[in-house]
Amino acid sequence: MASSTTTSSVYINVIEDVINKVRDEFINNGGPGETVLNELQGLWEMKMMQAGVICGPIDRSSANKQPVPGGPITPVHDLNVPYEGTEEYETPTAEILFPLAQTPLPGNAQTPLPGNVQTPLSGSVDNSSMYNIPTGSSDYPTPVSDAGGSTDGKAGRPSPFMQPPSTWMHQRPPLSVDVNVAYVEGREEVDRGTSHQPLTQDFFMPSGKRKREDFASKFNNGGFIPQQDGAGDSASEVSQAIGFYATNLIVSKGNDPLRSCDTITTKNREILARVSRSYSKIPQVDGPIPDPYDDVLSTPNIYNYQGVANEDYNIANTPAPNDLQASTPAVASQNNDVDDDDDEPLNEDDDDEEDLDDVDQGEELNTQHLVLAQFDKVTRTKSRWKCTLKDGIMHINNKDILFNKVVQSFRPDLGRTCAVQIEFWCQDYAYGGCCLPFFLLGFSGWCGFVNSKRTLFFMELISRHKVSWQAANPVVYLVLVWPSV
Amino acid sequence: MATFELYRRSTIGMCLTETLDEMVQNGTLSPELAFQVLVQFDKSMTEALETQVKSKVSIKGHLHTYRFCDNVWTFILQDALFKNEDSQELVGRVKIVACDSKLLTQ
User: Which residue intervals define the domain Transcription initiation factor IIA gamma subunit N-terminal in the entry (chain B) (predicted)?
Assistant: First the structure.
């Protein structure tokens, strides 16, 4: 009980710390005010009590400060449930998103924009490498997660709040559909106009990417920048160039000599870009790819780990400006993108599936005991593991235990692979060092002879049934003494 | 200050997340503010564990699975024995997720 009381008090402190430190955000900057903050604290504490991790009496301290709202009491339920009823959710979200994007709020969606759009305009060539990261942050309005920076995704599962943004993005399909229609038209135009095909392909290839940028810029600027990249229209060329640079695609001028946009030098583009950004509306008919983009949007995990999708784009795009012939037809590249999207990139859910393989279905899944911690070091000596963890939270047997330091040591689960000790008596058989496969009691593996008299067998047991290589594969030493003949 | 989102999966983190979910859903809270609260929670929880918690625990068990990916160790232990100063718990199967503490100090 001692541990649980301390746990409870630490939790109380954490709650109060959080509440105090976000108070400014709630009260200033047109925040929802302190009543909402109090409601938050009340709900939070109530849930904690329902979960049985904070004790009632300790809660008095906070109850003194503000009344626990009686109204919105709801039972603790699954996290995913609230998001399903999206309709109520949609409206406020959309309303919130755009004003926020317009007014420069600290650390919010506004921040990524300069990195994305302005940096490329300033002509740095490294943009393609920077591309993935800022794009991810701007596309995917989880500024908080970005603040988390390097630690993102470390938790092994998407944090619950990684999901809402994706649902918001889901709700954007009307926008993307419009752009796509425009794209098709623009492309036909290009084809009919028999303008320089490779170049237009260059423009089109990144289109899926660019569209996301456009999203970002829409969010961030709050301005609507439609873009037309039809053939031969100088205004659209400009906007196209802007869009192009916004997507960090560096097209060197010399590579598209036949285009009228040649006359636009890089500096001109910068200027034009600034000018055009000041316009609230620049018509844009550029070619985002409908399906891959939507696919990407529909799988939030890709957003958490954007690398895969973006890499493909970069690979396709980077050589294109320099080598016109290398550019493949736009449709083909799109199809590739679609294929790539179909191949689910590695993500954190994969682990869970593997876990399921080993867990007897259903068993332990509900009562998952979990330890969340930081590790100082993890060492292994043969089959003995030793880990030093710190600053952890354990949820064991429905109790929360906090610890500052833990030393854990464990051995591989020999029960699953069956440590076998067999003794034979050995006389004169002289076996050199060799390896023999063996099959024994449903286990198979390899064994080696070390000496001939009292033979030390080195065996690695591989259960034919269960052992996955991911599990700790034990190496079992057997002393086998050969039987006398 | 770098933080881990790790602790959001704990009971206190889940409770906070649920609360924020509901409030965002009700429209009483903007998602951005909810994010900020979560980030603040990451910081506060990390700090509290560093400063307010002194207890030590030892865990022994059979290692079922180990995994090291993206600087995160994941262990699944079977028949793990957790020893506290004053108590001990036996758990049939426990999952341990640990982030690299060095990432925080960088």
Answer: 4-49
Q: Looking at residue A120, what is its pLDDT?
A: 38
Is A238 in the same domain as A136? yes
CATH code of the domain covering residue B63: 2.30.18.10
Is A409's CB within 8 Å of B59's CB? yes
Query: Which of A43, A65, A87 is at the close of a domain?
Result: A65
pLDDT in tens, A378-434: 888 877 888 888 888 888 887 888 888 777 676 654 433 333 333 333 333 444 444
- For chain A, the domain total comes to 4
* ipTM, 2 dp: 0.91
The parent domain of residue A443 ranges over 415-481
Closest CA in chain B for residue A91: B27
For residue A73, is it within any domain?
no
For residues A98-131, one letter each, b for 16 or more C-beta atoms within 10 angstroms of the residue's C-beta and e for the rest, the string is eebbeeebeebbbbbbebbbebbbeeeeebbeeb
Q: Which residues of A touch B81 (CB under 8 A)?
A: none
Q: Which residues, in sequence order, are CB contacts of A321 under 8 Å at separation 6+?
A: A202, A249, A250, A251, A252, A255
Q: Answer for the pair A369, A397: CB distance below 8 angstroms, yes or no.
A: yes
Chain A, residues 226-245, CB within 8 A of chain B, namely: none
pLDDT digits (tens, 9 = 90+) for A244-257: 444 443 334 444 44
pLDDT tens, A152-180?
433 344 444 444 443 433 334 344 334 44
